[in-house]
Amino acid sequence: MALISFGVSAxxxxxxxxxxxxxxAITDNxxxxxxxxxTSGVTDALPGMMGGANTGSGSPxxxxxxxxxx
Length: 70
Description:
mainly alpha, 0% strand, elongated
C-alpha cells in the first residue's frame, strides 16, 4: 500500500515539474492552435461573406495616390 501511494505521489510531482518546466512551450502551442483555428474559420467564412466578389483574376485594383498641394 505504501509503495502504491509513493508511486502516485511521484507521478503527481513529476507531472507538475514537467508542466512547470514546459509551461511556455505549452502556452505557445495552445496560442498557435487558437490562431490556426481562427484563421481557418475566417478563411472559410470569407467567400460567403463576400458574395462571390472574388473573381480570382489576380489583377491588382488601381489605387489613386494623393496629390501634394505644394
